[in-house]
Recover the amino acids of this structure.
């Protein structure tokens, strides 16, 4: 069921210890900063977080990691010039890292939403990221078996929602939003604008409302 | 195969910009191209409008324009290096799985990547030094290496210590197996593939001098063509 | 388990429309639903606006409205049965893979399907008679059967020859294994699952009379609840 | 390379004997009737055709089948009240049928375009359509291994194209168009309208021009 909530704190209040949480965004584009801050405030811990990166600077996901609330990161690019909180936890052995090629990350998230049990892909074949994974040669090409990444909750950012939860995004801020919305049991969206139902062209909906559970408007 | 002619097209090694210009010139008109982070990004400075090249950025866009400046800067419009960019007429946006499907499905004509090492048969190592305390970060490198029809590498031929980055077999962790088709370096352009390494042209050195630097057998493209 | 009480909610068997109305009433408010071709389509006539049900059609739409009439008919707007339909406010269109991902990914709350046979444990046979000269045609039946959270079947309990369509094991080729959760028939509503068949209510017959028609052990929902 | 051609006959002129041809459409919605007629005229034979159905009435794909030009159909629903030409060929043993559940058909086409070597799906598990296929239990659920369906050519219909081949569709006529465009080596599109580049909103492009090779405007 879709609900419109008044605050980001209310929007994330159902997130429990031990949850797997997908967080949208690539760099700052599409990052649901306010929802991440609310996740920080809500106190949930032992989280597995799925995001392209592992936090930057002293904000958002980086703080969540600093405070020891993240048990495991599933991401493609944890190391950045300002990923010091992740770096420290990683070197201290206090956070688990599942490093996933970015395309496999996207495709595995998509697979979860689409009900795919697993798939073979050439990406990563013959590399250390395929170690321990099932492989086979398909049409002469080495391929690796990859499994879907499901989540309890997705926190994403969109541009507009209508009254039934249909979403549209803005430019490259779209990135992981649509696939994470489909892969999570419960999808929380922060939007800049809520328009009346019928206010979005049915031809241009990117995420249909069926994938959306909570919407909060963020100024 | 013996080393025959050497095709020296410049009397000195190429700088980064000259190399970028050369790569840009080699891209066929109408191509769809992804330029990796770092040195490959320079290539975009030398693409000519009449080449009609469409740039892909894996964070969800085709038809990417030049870096944004001043009022053009928009936090929602960035490239894979997280640099603000612009949108050209005919651009399109899509989500991450659709974007990587473009790459992984073999629809990009060329991607241009940096590298630590390339093997004689086109294995690529460009994501991880393998140092025990290094935090690994792969991003889209493996997808790009595996998905594009042609993978071009841009790099200096030698490390700071003077070792060849073209090697018999990569010692750094691999990004992809047998994926590189061309290597653009300051001293030469190499074609790599199942049959080994062919030198297309050299810059400021003869093929014989090049062979002294590179620990794998080199053939001349002219000899192959002949 | 012995047959205890029987919950007879109608003193005569239900007609197709009464059954459709019953199914419609049983759909929880806010549900996303796919109605199969044929008898299940009737259910849409009885959905109430206040139920706020969103209909999915697997050829690429959420928010499907009633059948189109007169000037509303648009060849580009049809349902899975290829009947012209209408679009409700809040509708969305998507391509076939995205549409089946909605179904296959477990996002639909309910699909309602017709059937040749349903087994005691919820196996469904609804796509193929198995006749040697029959041309098989499956459409989206297997995806619907496998993907929806709940699969409701609507059918007459008996074939024209008087045989029960609820069976110990399907003799027709299967559509899906253990997928049906509820069977709405003219004579009774059955709940199916790993533990066998429970009768929720009967129409114009007692549970004992029903048991004589159906070759699998029936339990009463009242007895189970008790 | 993208080309705009003047006639449907020119658009399909490159189709060779023995090709695998995907044809868009579900029922009449999205069917590229004019391109199918041109395929009929061009004479290519021994075709493998991928379409949801196997022709209806005495037109289009049904005629192609009647004339014995189709060696094999890959489809989900060949049997219809007016599929007499397919029915006759099938009973005469003159056409091969690969029957695929509709969702598997869509996902296999999508897999081809996305470079997936194969995937596991619960659809069809335990049924005769899984006979002879690899199966495994994943998270307690029986699943079937399905392979991508590639094509030499896709013939599809869209509403509008711009100068770089970006496409938008109309209502449920979208159906198989976008995934077939990505799965075929060469994609031919008939459109109702060609607009200047920049005339379609980048946020609303359904098929990016990278997937399109030939465009022909059909009145």
């Amino acid at each position: 069921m879709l609900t419109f909530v008044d605050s980001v704190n209310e929007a994330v209040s159902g997130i429990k210890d031990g949850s797997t949480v997908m967080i949208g965004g690539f760099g700052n584009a599409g990052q649901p900063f306010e929802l991440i801050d609310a996740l920080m405030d809500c106190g949930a811990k032992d989280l597995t977080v799925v995001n392209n990166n592992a936090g930057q600077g002293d904000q958002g996901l980086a703080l969540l990691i600093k405070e020891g609330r993240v048990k495991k990161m599933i991401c493609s690019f944890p190391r950045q010039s300002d990923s010091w909180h992740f770096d420290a936890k990683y070197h201290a052995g206090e956070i688990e890292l599942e490093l996933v090629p970015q395309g496999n990350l996207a495709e595995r998230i998509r697979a979860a939403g689409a009900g795919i049990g697993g798939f073979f892909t050439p990406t990563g074949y013959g590399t250390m990221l395929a170690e321990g994974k099932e492989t086979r040669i398909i049409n002469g090409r080495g391929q690796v078996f990859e499994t879907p990444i499901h989540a309890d909750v997705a926190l994403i950012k969109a541009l507009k929602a209508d009254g039934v939860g249909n979403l549209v995004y803005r430019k490259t801020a779209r990135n992981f939003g649509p696939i994470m919305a489909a892969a999570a049991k419960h999808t929380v969206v922060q939007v800049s604008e809520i328009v009346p139902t019928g206010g979005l062209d049915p031809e241009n909906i990117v995420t249909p409302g069926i994938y959306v559970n909570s919407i909060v408007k963020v100024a | 195969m013996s080393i025959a002619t050497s095709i020296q097209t410049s009397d000195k090694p190429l700088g980064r910009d000259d190399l970028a210009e050369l790569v840009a010139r080699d891209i066929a008109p109408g191509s769809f191209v992804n330029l990796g982070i770092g040195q490959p990004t320079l290539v975009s400075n030398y693409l000519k409008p009449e080449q009609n090249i469409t740039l892909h950025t894996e964070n969800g866009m085709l038809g990417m324009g030049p870096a944004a400046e001043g009022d053009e800067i928009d936090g929602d419009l960035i490239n894979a290096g997280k640099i603000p960019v612009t949108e050209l007429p005919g651009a399109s946006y899509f989500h991450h799985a659709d974007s990587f499907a473009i790459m992984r499905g073999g629809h990009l004509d060329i991607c241009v990547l940096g590298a630590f090492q390339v093997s004689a048969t086109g294995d690529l190592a460009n994501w991880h030094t393998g140092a025990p305390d290094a935090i690994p970060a792969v991003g889209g490198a493996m997808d790009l290496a595996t998905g594009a029809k042609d993978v071009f590498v841009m790099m200096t031929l030698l490390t700071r210590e003077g070792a060849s980055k073209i090697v018999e077999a990569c010692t750094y962790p691999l990004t992809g197996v047998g994926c590189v088709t061309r290597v653009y370096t300051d001293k030469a352009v190499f074609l790599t593939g199942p049959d080994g390494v062919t030198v297309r042209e050299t810059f400021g050195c003869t093929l014989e001098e090049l062979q002294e630097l590179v620990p794998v057998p080199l053939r001349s493209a002219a000899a192959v063509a002949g």
